[in-house]
Design goal:
The chain has eleven helices and three strands. The chain is mainly alpha-helical.
């Protein structure tokens, strides 16, 4: 199953969710059913969160320390800084969890020019990317957006579409503030604007769900 389809499966399963925020353990359970990973471990560590807030390692470990030939189990470890706030911690862990469905050749989009090609291939509007949320960003300074793609994928998981639409209606009626939206979903405050902007939301949804098709296209061109 292509990775974008796995993401679609997760979004579909969360689509009718009524209680928020999204539980990382629930996401981990879904990923165990969609990937070879059998178990996730969440490990709080000391790290400079100004440089790195979390990390993902997929490895195999023995189920028991007793005996030389114990059965192996495929375990993925998610590391995150102990200095994070509750909302930062949840967001970081879910962002790292989603690396479990990264395409094998995800490095195809690990450079700025690759992201530009992806946007062009999917016929997405650069004005959205460089506009309201990315002021000052140009093709020469787009590198930070490669990492930001991971943030966007976490947002898609943490803010299911039906609930996003309901929250937008409440926002229009002044029943909830942007700060309230961020608190409700337990996401970083700076992403509240993204949630209420339909054009930008469609942009990041298309970007991630179109990634596999882009990678297939890239392989075909290279063949």
């Amino acid at each position: 199953m292509h990775e974008a389809k796995k993401l679609s499966k997760i979004l579909e399963r969360l689509s009718d969710k009524k209680e928020f925020p999204v539980d990382p353990n629930q996401v981990a359970e879904m990923l165990c059913g969609l990937t070879p990973i059998e178990c996730f471990r969440f490990i709080k560590v000391d790290m400079d969160d100004n440089v790195l807030k979390g990390g993902f390692v997929n490895t195999k470990r023995l189920t028991t320390l007793a005996g030389l030939y114990g059965d192996e189990i495929n375990i993925a470890c998610v590391f995150y800084s102990r200095n994070l706030t509750v909302s930062e911690e949840r967001f970081c862990v879910i962002k790292e969890l989603m690396h479990a469905i990264d395409p094998v050749d995800i490095s195809t989009v690990n450079k700025p020019e690759h992201l530009i090609s992806l946007i062009q291939h999917l016929s997405l509007s650069r004005e959205i990317l460089y506009g309201k949320f990315m002021k000052g960003i140009t093709e020469e300074t787009i590198r930070p957006l490669v990492d930001t793609m991971g943030d966007w994928r976490a947002l898609l998981v943490m803010v299911p579409e039906k609930e996003r639409e309901a929250v937008i209606e409440s926002y229009k009626k002044n029943e909830i503030t942007k700060e309230g939206i961020a608190a409700y979903f337990e996401i970083p405050k700076n992403y509240a604007d993204a949630i209420i902007d339909n054009d930008f939301w469609d942009f990041i949804m298309t970007l991630w769900l179109g990634l596999d098709e882009f990678l297939d296209h890239t392989k075909a061109e290279a063949a």
